[in-house]
Amino acid sequence: MQQLVVSIHPDLVEPASTRFLEGTLDETSYRVGGMDLETPDGIQYQLQLTNTGEGIVLSGEASCTAITPCTRCLVPTRIEVSGAVEGYYLLEASEDVDGYEDDEFEVIGADGSFDIAPAIIAALVYATPYVVLCKEDCAGLCPHCGADLNEGPCACNQEDEIDPTNPFAVLKDLKLEDE
């Protein structure tokens, strides 16, 4: 993962001081669960860093155009992803860290620098849909021959065969009233 290192010097040293950052993180991909997403145009961010006296609060937004296979038919699909960036970076001078969970903050190094790229990537991970579809009514792939059913019916003419010993096989002939 590419780093985006920020320093508190010179304009974030004083409490209540603020810095705005805007740019593009040249990250080519990120991963959500078992899904890889390509980001050909990088990741755009608009961020605000504020010194609270005890630490630096990071807030803002990250967005990208991501490309990943459709969950049903595996066709490369473009999606727009936008998420809220949040982070808290504790100044090394702060002594009361017992009141915080370990995953709530990172400690700023002695040189006054810290990496905000993980917070940007995390914002996109949280905002990425778990299921990505090329279109809402995607028909997917034929389970027998693998043909793309969005292009029409497949030529394999496979009927879903039900094992007659399956206790649910009797439900195949069950007629339901139209609702």
SSE pattern, N- to C-terminal:
EEEEEEEEEH
Which residues sit in consecutive blocks of at least 5 with pLDDT less than 50?
none
Protein structure class: mainly beta
Total domains:
2
Question: Overall mean pLDDT score?
Answer: 89
Helix content: under 10%
Shape: elongated
What is the total tally of β strands?
A: 9
Largest sheet: 5 strands, mixed
Overview of the molecule:
The protein is mainly β. It has 2 domains: 5-127, no CATH class; 144-179, no CATH class. 6% of the residues lie in helices and 35% in strands. The protein has 1 helix and 9 strands; from the N terminus they run βββββββββα. It has one helix spanning 117-127, and strands at residues 5-7, 18-25, 29-32, 35-38, 43-51, 55-69, 76-90, 106-107, 113-115. It has a 5-stranded mixed sheet with strand order 2-5-6-7-8. A two-stranded antiparallel sheet has the order 1-9. Strands 3-4 form a two-stranded antiparallel sheet. The longest helix has 11 residues, at 117-127. The protein starts with a strand and ends in a 52-residue tail after the last helix.
Secondary structure: elements and pairs:
Layout: E1 5-7, E2 18-25, E3 29-32, E4 35-38, E5 43-51, E6 55-69, E7 76-90, E8 106-107, E9 113-115, H1 117-127
Defining traits:
elongated; 9 strands; 6% helix; five-stranded mixed β-sheet; mainly beta; 179 residues; 1 helix
In brief, what are we looking at here?
With 179 residues, the chain is mainly beta.
